[in-house]
User: Fold these one by one.
Assistant:
Number 1:
Amino acid sequence: MGGIHSTIFPDEPLEMGADAVITGNGDLVWPKAVKDALEHRLERRYSGGRVPGDALLKARWDLLNPRQYTFPTIQTVAGCPGNCSFCSVWVTDGRQPRQRLTSKIIEEANELYQKGFRYVIFADDNFNPATLGRIAREPSPQKRKQLEQIREERLKFFDEYGKAVPQNLLAFTQMTTEVTSDQEYLSAMYHKARLRAALIGIESFSEEGLRSANKQWNPTGRKMVETIQTIQDAGISVLSSIICGLESDNVQTIRTMRKFALESGSILAQFTFYHPYPGTKDFYEMMNDAKNRGKTNFVPRHATRISEERFWLKPMNEADQIRHANISRADLLAENQACWDAFYSVKEVLRRLRRGRARSWPLVGKFTYLLLCLIFRRIYGGQGMAADGVRRKSLGFLTKSLIHVGVGAYNFFFRKDSVSVGQPWSRY
């Protein structure tokens, strides 16, 4: 086994029956693990570490049937300089951004284009790790210099990518609001990297919520609404990722957040439940609180409590993983449901289609958006998508049917079938 959880708790998979565990990045260590397995001398643990950017490998797309993949992924940079208290990305992948070789990114993008893809996902946890805003708030002179160098590398990458990759290969990614602090960077992402949509960690519209998430540099309230609109006015549609149940949340703050989310005009939004992912700062602090609560002179860091130590091993609702300090379980579930219901109501979806760039979308684009809202709501409602999350429930018949219709429409309208039959997957 490998991945985020195995990297943080490598002993757990072994305790539960795994033959071997790979921690860190698998790019360099995976061939050895496969070779050892074939030769029946598998080791218990392999350490992949944090692979340098110039050693990050591209996927073997020649082994897969591209018609079974809607959006292929390309990684351009690993690591994130942020340290949000609820996020495990910087814990496992580090805070030092590692830029992948531009030539390798271009090679992979052009290969995917030849296979008929016209949209790709840049699978970076932070596509804009070094904007002017991020550099300006960095207190360490040495770190600031490193970020300045990374910014120059990113701008150079955008320039070379824009010249070498077909103009009609568009992209989605994940980034932060700090991109609005850097007009040159924002423009390059749209015009050269050809980004057309991005998941952005809004987390909360309140100062208290952002403080509890250790993300105080994010704008709040009306300023956040304006920030989202600025990004969308630049041509990049926003999927706002918003957390319900941060430690400072109560019924009223969630309702206020819902109002701001609707006003923002975000093309998509997800309203996730807060829970301390294993390995995060919040997780370790809450576990320490649990072990020491009741001791003389001990002051807990959090009022919210983890329900039990290894909660992820039990099939429980996400709202049951913590005992919230300021909101009951019933109210949290109800308010989260109200967020999803309001944002994806027919009234609000049609309202968004009459605003901003959506007004100029062709009829096919508007139909696709309506279908996307239906599918997104049914798949991710109440949970959302996350790099360190996993879906527990299987999809229902109607949801699967909508996905098949959506993929079929996407393949018909937005792909060019240029796949040859001489690929390895065609033999099976």
Note: The chain has two domains: 1-49, 53-423.
Number 2:
Amino acid sequence: MGLFSKNKTETAQAAPVNETPKTPVNNAPAAAATPAAAQQAPKAPVNAAPAPQAPKAPVNAAPAPNAAPAPQVDQKTAQELKLFAEKCEKIFTEIKKDMIGQTEVVQSTIIAIIAGGNVLLEGAPGLGKTRLVRSLGNVFDLPFSRIQFTPDLMPADVTGTNIITKDENGNSKFEFQKGPIFSNIVLADEINRATPKTQAALLEAMQEHKVTVMGVSRKLDEPFFVLATQNPIEQDGTYPLPEAQMDRFMFKILVPNPSAAELAQIVTMTQKTMEETAKAACNGEELLRMRAVAKTIPIASDVLEYAMVMVASTHAGSEIATDTAKRYIRDGASPRAAQALITAAKVRALIKGRYNVSYEDINTLAIPVLRHRIKLGFEAVTSKLNADDVVRAHLADLNNVNKNSIINKKK
């Protein structure tokens, strides 16, 4: 029995009048009957069937993603939502000029940028990771800088440093020379090739959006994003990112290889020009406004609870840990995972044309949010399961879905 008795993407059906509803695992109280129904029938025992006058669905049954009507919005909010949708359409249209395929990669990256998160792109060389980031700089009309991480790169090469200069009187003085981190969109190319000391130079900037050099803190201009890339194939001479830095990425996105048809389009496009052709579709001020609008999106208490249980149950020692977590996960996700899940789900809901967060939003974003935040145990490694397999099995446990096809395919 899963923590949630039905798949969150299925439509919830009201319980038949003479059927006894299942007792929820978390012993949550059943929803109260209407006053009229309460007068016609006494309160039923816990395991008794509901009164005919007030049939109720099981507490843990999930409504369909779009089953509940969207909340009523005023004219001003409706106008903001319309502008949000128009901007998103323009953004995706411009990105398609430079990117062939990679629909999920582009959409996830756009969601993270609007939500204000950092993104780690992982894929083999030549898949367009750097091209995507450069195109985003053009589309959002924001200052863009690229840092090529190498083993000899120093923290001062990223953050900047104090240099000695001469004033008008010929006296020496210290002057701060800003590094490439002082930009709105920062591409950290092949981030895992730099030493941990240099990687750590990004921690403060990614989380607090400021840089401290020689005791002086300087705020970074908003909006600020770090879009990092790494190559999972060649590991010689690389340094795995520390847990503190991995946790600061909202998403870890895996970039797949293109299909034969997509490859033909890529070759045809690059024969004409290697330059990005995307035009500006949104500026920094508009992007910040879109982020503020997304934060106003309501989320039902049941959906919020589902997301929180999803994250909390990744810890094997938790009272609500799933069987998958107990068996395959050594370390679960941090609270940042819950924050990222809800923030990104609100943006995705608006992109999909809804003014409310659905279970589908939560389930879809679970893998890019959790894949880099959980640490696999010995049994997962010996079973040849990767993080995505374990997250899918974890979701299956939550929704009481058969996970054998997920686990057994690697054996």
Note: The first strand starts at residue 118 and ends at 122.
Number 3:
Amino acid sequence: MTHATTRRQSRTCFWVLGLITVLLSGSMADAKSSSAPGGKTGKETLCDYRAHPTITAVTPTQVKPGQRITISGKNFGSKRCFHSVSFGAKSTDKWTYVSPTTVEATVPSLLPGAVPVTVSTEAGTSQYKLDVQAK
């Protein structure tokens, strides 16, 4: 083996090690940015962007404005990752996050008929038709 070959192999080795170091430091930065403040980690602090919400039921099925409803489903995420509830084009701030599968909301003033209730999370939205009765 010549001195030139050994030098070329040495440079290649350092280049590969440098690349690995850069890739690992980028991965560590990503991991740090998705953890809770202060370096603490916990499932409730992370939002799963792949777990789209799904409403499976709304009870009661026939409602009147001002009535409280329970929205059941899956993948509502953590309280931090849950954003809103809306009825048709009307959003409401009268909702309570209960769990990753349950949210409660108060029906706003709406015209009678089929109205989509929508939940919005960090991962997307889901709709369910609600039968609104006259007040």
Note: Residues 3-36 form one domain.
Number 4:
Amino acid sequence: MNNQNVYNNFQNQNVLNQYLINLLNKSNINNQNYINQLKYNNYINQNNNTILSNNINNLNNNMNKNNNINLYSNVNGINNPIIPNNNINVNNPNINNIDYNDNFKMTHSMGNLNHLILQKNANITNSSNRQNNHSLNKQKNQNLNLLSNEELAKQAYYLAKYQNGCRYLQKRIENNQKLVPTLFFPNILGHIQELSNDQFGNYYIKIIIKYLPEDMIYKFIQLIHPSITKIGTNQYGTKVIQNLIDFLTSEKNLLFFIEKTLPHVVDLINDLNGIHIIQRLICIKSNYIQMIYNKIFENVKLISVTRDGSNFIKKLLDFLDEENMVLLINSINENLHDIITNQFGNYIIQNIIKKENLVLKFQVIETIILNIVNFSNQKFSSNVVEKCFEVEEMKDKVIDEIIKGNNFEYILLNEYGNYVIQKALFKSDQNRQHIMFKLLVPIVTRLQSLSFGQKLLSKLFILYPRLSIYILNSEEQL
């Protein structure tokens, strides 16, 4: 069949689209977007032709089975030509305007086919989509305009979960603000959590909150407080709670909200979405916020060992006043072992050591020194011990504790502790280096037997040439 015969067999635009769909289905190129485009064209051009739709679905199941494009396809179990060979030439302007290459080969890449069809149909289809959507939305809004406020409020739960319905509800409320507490709010009392966590429904809840009087805000808090964690940890629900906080203008409502939120503080802080609620809350200037701080201090261990909780505590260290800072540091010190050995909590201690407040960081370092061997020999806490050498006023005291008794040996022979010794050698004065060299000599043999020992010794000999002299002298004495 030559190209001219192919043209003559295109009876209408539907047949053209069907032909191209089969060509696309028979290629190895990913043409799903093109097929979807053609399907839509057939849908709007034909009058409920279910047979053609079924054929298209059957062809989709046979995609990429043949590298060559064939004019014949097995449809519904029968070998039928894709284009009926009836040699009917129809003067269809949509067909005649398409410029085919006379030498077009059926095994050609589908790149040229894209140029042949999509430029012709894409603009028509997109325009039809926009017109259809606009007409549909306009018709829906006209139908909603026929509803009274009472009827619309009864349907609010259903409408709020759809984009256009939610937008229409918001517009109606803006024009009838006084009806919110008496009409719109009562009709969603049993659905606040669901709508708050909904992609579109959360906007409806937020505009409800905006126009509620203070006494109704109090009632709203009563309704949500059992579910505040489920709402606050949701990506949409957290925005509703934050919006509610902005409208806690009375001390009574603020106190009531804080009291109901206290049992959920830890869960909210340890969540990526919930943390923003507590951050928004502590920015309010009120004496009642101290209740939130106290809850945080009591649960600092549970908060510090999570990713979000650790970030929260680090930010809190820059935010608190001096009095609350002391309370927080005391609480951290009481739980230092669990925090400093945690993959997230250790960054809190490092952050404290970097602070300019000498009293507070001295307090933490003193606690570290009391358990220097244990902290030096653990993966995360060893990084904190190394940070202690950066504090000029305390580094000598930390090194003195390391070289006391058998501490040096226990730390040096550990896979993590040896890095602490290396940092200590680098930061110590000559007298303390001399002491550490002497302590190192008796355990060189044991160190060489460890997997990291040879590398460590080579590094130390390069950095400290005097160390090799100590070892040689000790061997001569023996």
Note: Strands lie at 72-75, 78-81.
